[in-house]
Design brief:
DNA polymerase, domain 1; hpI Integrase, Chain A; 3-stranded antiparallel beta sheet; two-stranded antiparallel sheet; 15 helices; 54% helix
Length: 337
C-alpha cells in the first residue's frame, strides 16, 4: 500500500467503509442491481424496499451508492430528479416516527451506581477478580458516558494515554476524531469531579484495579479476569448497559441503549438551567437540530408552562369552581358496555 493509499484509507472511518460496502453489496448481490446504475434502476430499488426498510436506511443506501459512483468516476444516479421524487413519495406514504432511546434518569443512574459499587465490594471480599473488574469497568463506563454525554463510539475509543486526571478537580480526555469532527482536528473534553456519582473517581478506581497504563480504556473481560488487548466495540456497549439493569434487578432494561446516557444527561442539564448553547458546546453538537432532538418537553413540564402563562382567575370564578368541583367520593363510574 502506497503512502497515498494509507492516507486515503485513514480519511475514511472504518465503520463508514464497512457499512457502505454492505449497502452496495445489498444493491448488487441481493437485489441483483447493476453497477454503474441508472437513475431509473436506483428509483426501482427504493420502491422495492420502501415498505420494509426505514427511511434512514434507504437514505444510507443512497449515500453508499453515491459514494461508489463518485469514487469510480461515474455520474451519480442518486442525484437525479426521479430518485428525489420517489424518496419524497416514500416519506409521504410510509411516515415513521423516529425511535429514540429512553433517557436514563438520575435516580435510576443512582440505583445502578449503588448496585455496581456493592457488587464490586462483594466480589473483592470473595476474591473474585473477574466480577470486581467487570463491575468497576461498568461503573466507570456508565458514569463517564452519562456526565460527558458520550456516544458509544466515543466511549470505546477513549485511550488511557489521552486522559489526564487532576485530583479533586476533574479529568480531561482527548479524542482524535468524533462524529461531528469532520476535519479530524480532534477535541478535548473536560469532566468535573463530583461529590456523588463521580465519573472521575470511578475511572480512577477502574484504572487502579485493572493495572492498565496505556491503550483502550474499556475492554472485554473473560470469566477468569483476563482483559482483552483491544477495546470494546460500539455495539458491545448496549448489552453491557442492559446487563447492568438485569443484574441490579431493575426492570425495563431493554428500553435503554448507549444513547440513553447522552439523552439522560441532556435532560438533566435542561432541567438544571443549562441553556442550549452551553449544552451544545459541552456535548459537542454542531447544529441546533441535533441538540433539539435530545430535549423533549415532558408532559408535566408542558402543563406547568401553560399554567404559568394563564391569567389569574377572578375571585367569583374561583368560588364557582369550588362549588361545582365534584368530590372524589361522589364520582360515579359507569361500567363499560
Amino acid at each position: 500500500m502506497s503512502q497515498v493509499d494509507t492516507y486515503l484509507e485513514a480519511a475514511n472511518r472504518k465503520n463508514t467503509r464497512r457499512s457502505y460496502a454492505s449497502a452496495v453489496r445489498h444493491f448488487e448481490v441481493e437485489w441483483k442491481g447493476l453497477l454503474p446504475a441508472t437513475s431509473e434502476m436506483v428509483a426501482s430499488y427504493l420502491a422495492d424496499h420502501a415498505a420494509t426498510l426505514s427511511l434512514n436506511t434507504l437514505q444510507h443506501r443512497l449515500s453508499a451508492l453515491s459514494r461508489w459512483h463518485t469514487d469510480h468516476g461515474f455520474t451519480d444516479p442518486t442525484k437525479a430528479q426521479v430518485v428525489r421524487q420517489v424518496l419524497r413519495g416514500i416519506r409521504t406514504l410510509h411516515p415513521a416516527r423516529e425511535k429514540q432511546a429512553k433517557p436514563l434518569q438520575l435516580d435510576t443512574l443512582q440505583r445502578l451506581d449503588s448496585w455496581l459499587q456493592q457488587a464490586a465490594y462483594a466480589d473483592k471480599a470473595q476474591v473474585q477478580p473477574s466480577g470486581e473488574l467487570r463491575h468497576l469497568r461498568d461503573r466507570a463506563l456508565l458514569l463517564l458516558g452519562f456526565w460527558r454525554g458520550f456516544r458509544a463510539d466515543e466511549l470505546v475509543r477513549l485511550r488511557i494515554e489521552h486522559i489526564e486526571i487532576e485530583p479533586g478537580e476533574g479529568l480531561t480526555c482527548f479524542l482524535p476524531r468524533s462524529k461531528g469532527d469532520r476535519n479530524a482536528d480532534g477535541r478535548t473534553f473536560r469532566c468535573p469531579a463530583l461529590s456523588r456519582l463521580c465519573p472521575v473517581s470511578a475511572y480512577a478506581d477502574w484504572l487502579t484495579a485493572s493495572g492498565l497504563t496505556a491503550g483502550p480504556v474499556f475492554r472485554a473481560i473473560d470469566r477468569w479476569g483476563n482483559m482483552a488487548s483491544a477495546g470494546l466495540s460500539a455495539n458491545g456497549v448496549i448489552p453491557i448497559i442492559r446487563g447492568i439493569f438485569a443484574s441490579a434487578g431493575i426492570p425495563g432494561g431493554n428500553e435503554y441503549s448507549s444513547h440513553s446516557l447522552r439523552r439522560g444527561f441532556a435532560g438533566w442539564a435542561k432541567s438544571n438551567g443549562w441553556d442550549i448553547k452551553e449544552l451544545m458546546e459541552y456535548v459537542g453538537w454542531r447544529d441546533l437540530k441535533s441538540a433539539v432532538r435530545y430535549l423533549e418537553i415532558q408532559p408535566g413540564d408542558l402543563k406547568q408552562r401553560f399554567e404559568r402563562g394563564l391569567p389569574s382567575a377572578p375571585e367569583a370564578a374561583r368560588e364557582v369552581s369550588a362549588v361545582h368541583e365534584p368530590s372524589k367520593s361522589k364520582i360515579i363510574r359507569f361500567p363499560a358496555k
